[in-house]
Write a structure and sequence with these properties.
The chain is an alpha/beta fold. Helices cover 39% and strands 20% of the residues.
Length: 225
């Protein structure tokens, strides 16, 4: 999922962003209401996590403006304002959920997943499969031919992206932007290293290779024709 966190407390924002990225999601951060609104107006996010009290434009204004502009991206308010009236104001402004601080990160993650499933019940896939390789996106589990495979968070994100584009050629630029969130080529071998590690885990002990290098183009995950 692509998630936008709008939070002016940099320490709190870093905690949420780090946790969401470790859970395999692509996360952008905005430190004030105006920046958050400008990013959210693109409609390119699957869910928004919005603080109520923000500089320049408060969270209620951000979400209500999005609704006026017909942007229906699910929004979860994350706020220290936890009275009943505060929660009602958040929902009336167009919020889809409201979680008060302090909170358990596991609950935040679960609420985000529920919001996305509700907003796109036909589009959200929770299981991916290519040949005998299977990924459970909710449980964060990978198996091939019934054998469980242990992946590091970045390896999981890489595999998830490749599986969602199974049969297609995925370029280095696509991987840098969508798995590492680089919008430039840092001129490192980070992709090669992770591809090598992933291939060793999903292909090495199996007869049929699934992860293929397309010389001069990129990579492709596909079962045998």
């Amino acid at each position: 999922m692509r998630i936008l966190v709008i939070e002016d407390d940099l320490e709190a924002a870093a905690y949420v962003v780090k946790g969401l990225r470790e859970s395999g999601h692509i996360v952008d951060h905005a430190a004030d209401g105006d920046e958050g609104l400008n990013l959210a107006l693109s409609g390119s996010f699957d869910v928004l996590v919005v603080d109520r009290m923000l500089p320049k434009r408060d969270g209620l204004s951000v979400v209500s403006t999005l609704r006026q502009e017909k942007i229906r991206t699910p929004a979860l308010f994350l706020s220290a304002l936890g009275e009943v009236d505060d929660r009602i104001m958040g929902l009336k402004a167009g919020g889809d959920d409201y979680l008060t601080k302090p909170y358990a990160f596991a609950e935040l993650l679960a609420r985000i997943e529920v919001l996305v499933r509700r907003s796109n019940p036909e589009q959200v896939r929770t299981r991916l499969q290519v040949g005998d390789l299977e990924v459970d996106l909710l449980a964060r589990k990978v198996s091939r031919n019934g054998q469980e495979i242990d992946l590091q968070p970045r390896e999981f994100r890489l595999l998830e992206y490749l599986m969602k584009h199974a049969g297609q050629v995925v370029t280095r630029t696509m991987l840098l932007e969508n798995v590492w969130e680089y919008h430039f080529d840092p001129q490192t071998n980070v992709i090669d290293v992770h591809i090598s590690r992933l291939r060793a885990k999903i292909d090495k002990n199996f007869k049929q290779p699934l992860l293929h290098t397309i010389r001069g183009a990129g990579y492709s995950l596909r079962a045998a024709d």
